[in-house]
Amino acid sequence: MKKSYDVIIVGAGVAGCFAALHLPPDRQILMITKEDITECDSYLAQGGICVLKDPSDYDAFFEDTMRAGHYENRKESVDCMIRSSKDVIEELMGYGVDFARNPDGTLEFTREAAHSTNRILHHEDITGEEITTHLQAAVKKLPNVEIHEHTRMVDLLTEKNRCDGIVLIDEDGKLQVVFASHILLATGGIGGIYENSTNYPSLTGDSLALCLKHDIKLEHLNYVQIHPTTFYSEKKERRFLVSESVRGEGAVLRDKNGERFTDELLPRDLLSAEILKQMAK
To answer: What is the pLDDT of residue 2?
Structure first.
């Protein structure tokens, strides 16, 4: 590991890899991840990825997204996500991502919660693994990217509203200071700190904590997405997620009396609230 790079990317999931693939090839990039490169939550996504099928679906797609976010979404970001989605899908397929297809060869669209129509592409029930594996493989081929696993960021080097690098503990347990002109934090959320979670336990919000320490602006930290359905287990371990697409394809939720008690395609926060009401009875 060198002492200085043009860019440091902390995190090796979909966000970090996609960023690395879009940076200029003449930039020297260090990518670190605190566990094995496959132990990121991007691997765990099951259901699929939404895409604008055709221009006529734009308004409904936009409204579905805004409503699921209680209209607190940044409209510019929602617009960008929707309009760029088809290009992103085509780029992913260019890296070798194999989305499910109909018998006639066209892409197969399924449905998930909060969507008013089928606009979800998937690969079996391991869409996240399929996408992440191919993106990581593409990044590994880049001669300007150096990847270090089992390497943990422990601090940011900040001064006068500027970040000049990070402090890390490398794979040999040694403390190092590494400088860079640009730092990209792509470490995910805080799901791993919960006793019952579908996330890897390594997902502990390291970047968020360091941003708070250094007065770097964050927003909506109280918004933690709760996935409504997991496979029940009494063991204290990571929960196995039951994909939202199961409900999208017609599965129903029933209470202890076998009665259906809600609309299974409500947005995740609302559906989780309905499930909690049943648990409290």
So the answer is: 95
pLDDT grade for 93, boundaries at 50, 70 and 90: very high
Q: Are 1 and 148 in contact (CB under 8 A)?
A: yes
Taking the CA of residue 59 as centre, how many other CA atoms within 13 Å lie in the half-sphere pointing to its CB? 1
Contacts made by residues 253-260, CB under 8 angstroms, sequence distance 24+:
253/229, 255/281, 256/281
Q: What span, in angstroms and rounded, lies between the C-alpha atoms of 186 and 10?
A: 6
What is the total residue count of the chain?
281
Location of structure tokens 């989605």: 85
pLDDT score recorded for residue 17: 98
Percent of all residues in the chain with a pLDDT value above 70, rounded to a whole number: 100
Instruction: Calculate the dihedral angle through the C-alpha atoms of 59, 127, 246, 186, rounding to the nearest 10 degrees.
Output: -70
Query: How far is Cα 39 from Cα 13, in angstroms, rounded to an integer?
Result: 9
Active site (catalytic) residues: 268
Element (H, E) at 165: strand 163-169
Contact at 8 Å (CB) between 196 and 279?
no
Contact between 120 and 110 (Cβ < 8 Å):
yes
Give yes or no for a contact between 188 and 10, defined as CB atoms under 8 angstroms apart: no
Nearest Cα to Cα of residue 31 among 11, 49, 46: 11
Residues 244 and 112: beta-carbon distance below 8 Å: yes
Position 212, amino acid: L
Domains of the chain: 4-41+134-213 (3.50.50.60), 49-121 (no CATH), 229-281 (3.90.700.10)
